[in-house]
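Quick one, T. Sequence first:
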Amino acid sequence: MADMNGQVALVTGGIRGIGLAICERLMTRGIKVAAGYSSNDDDARQFAGKYADRGVTVHRGNIGRNEDCVRVIGEVIDQHGHLDILVNNAGITVDKTVRKMSAAEWDHVIHVNLSGAFYLSRAVLQHMLDRGYGRIVNISSVVGSAGGFGQANYAAAKSGMFGLTMSLALETASKGITVNTVTPGYITTEMTAAVPADVMEKIVSRIPVGRLGDPNEVARVVEFLADPESGYITGQVYPVNGGLYM
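Structure tokens:
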């Protein structure tokens, strides 16, 4: 593993769940973390206080708005001096069947889960090009590969990340920048905790390893892809799903 001390990473949705695990894992490598969040000021303050000695910063914004994404990227570069790693992790769900889903509910999920990754990647791209180095890791979902009942908007957004990843990877491969996607399966988070027990039992029964994943199991793949020594890996999709979708 290469020395990553002094590098800076922006992790959206970084104050809880998978995003928090990614932040904590990157910190162990000496990376200064900027955590993005949308609304939970209490959690953001707790995160900032807990890791104040690690030089973390927190940045509030709606990644479904291009203006917010440009502002947050600017804040991170202003406060830390540079930005080496972007992890597009934040996402939302508004689950309904297509017949019952409104156009606004479709647009909202697409804007946050897919357009947000584009907005942030575009906002940081010139900075990475000027420095001749960068790592962009998009967090998709097994639902983007397999679909999900009542999740057409979420599945479309997460599937769209594959095309964004491969296209941006092609455009930046010769510039010292890599772009990859990690697709978690069912991971133990607040989102899965809200699933009724009988439904979760059926889900787990379909997972070959017989359990939910741990957020750190996703974070370690992100760490691997963010490492300077992973420079020959780009445009790839890494499933972390316990064999659920082979």
